[in-house]
Design brief:
Blueprint (H helix, E strand, L loop, with lengths): L10 H16 L1 H7 L6 E6 L5 H15 L5 E6 H4 L6 H15 L3 E6 L15 H18 L7 E7 L17 E5 L4 H12 L8 H10 L5 H27 L3
Parallel strand pairs: 1-4, 1-5, 2-3, 3-4
Helix pairs in contact: 1-2, 1-3, 5-6, 7-8, 7-9
Pfam families: AAA (PF00004)
Keywords: ATP-binding, Bromodomain, Nucleotide-binding
Family: Belongs to the AAA ATPase family.
């Protein structure tokens, strides 16, 4: 599993995750000695494609390398937890938290959290709102019990933090938040360097600087797609040249 080296332009996020997640998971005795409770819930939010899911996977990889004991990583999308039948989502969440506690230290990553626990009263009308209200209540109870489950950290990710039920953003639940904004020019240069470091021959720093300067407003996912498109275009050009050389004059 990739570690911090897979992240470009997110050094501020890396430093926060080291403090909020790795330190409590690997050295819980420091917090117990000081009689303070480490963060148990962290909310990633920001623009689409800015690296929220990638950061969670890099965190899991970094924990696996730093810890003498394996750190379990559970990743779910909000929609994956919802089922066809009433009560299925609540059961899925309870089983997920129980399994994480059994394999602690563990990280639970819930992507697209707003689709799982939307603000009550805004999810729809009638039965739909009642179903989501039940899921939110279950999630609140599970988050309140995280401290009693051992070394388990819950990370949620969303592009719309305002759509999540407000009760989940109170202290003791998702009480720490990490914002993922669009990358600066320097950040874009770092992201481009990550995605092109294995190219043969590697692009010049002057070219990468020019691309970084010309891609204002691009998210990390956009830059990754740009690099992938460049590779495909290069392959197509090379194939065309080979075919052209092979034709009789």
């Amino acid at each position: 599993m990739p570690g911090w080296e897979s992240l470009g332009g997110l050094q501020h996020v890396v430093e926060q995750l080291k403090e909020m997640v790795i330190l409590p998971l690997l050295y819980p005795e420091l917090f117990s000695h000081m009689r303070i409770s480490p963060p148990r819930g962290i909310l990633f939010h920001g623009e689409p494609g800015t690296g929220k899911t990638l950061a969670a996977r890099a965190l899991a990889g970094a924990c696996a390398r730093a810890s003498p004991k394996p750190v379990a990583f559970f990743a779910r999308k909000g929609a994956d937890c919802l089922g066809k039948f009433s009560g299925e989502a609540e059961r899925t969440l309870r089983l997920l938290f129980e399994e994480a506690a059994a394999q602690a230290p563990a990280i639970i990553f819930l992507d697209e959290l707003d689709g799982l626990v939307p603000a009550r009263g805004q999810a729809g009308s009638g039965g739909s709102d009642q179903i989501y209200a039940s899921v939110v209540s279950t999630m609140l109870a599970l988050m309140d019990g995280v401290a009693d489950r051992g070394a388990v950290v819950v990370i949620g990710a969303t592009n719309r933090p305002e759509a999540i039920d407000a009760a989940l953003r109170r202290p003791g639940r998702f009480d720490r938040e990490v914002y993922f904004g669009l990358p600066s020019t320097a950040d874009r240069l770092e992201i481009l360097s990550v995605h092109t470091c294995r190219w043969e021959p590697p692009p010049s720093i002057q070219l990468l600087q020019a691309v970084a300067a010309a891609t204002q407003g691009f998210a990390g996912a956009d830059l990754q797609a740009l690099c992938a498109g460049a590779v495909m275009a290069a392959w197509a050009t090379a194939a065309h040249r080979r075919r052209k050389r092979g034709k009789p004059r």
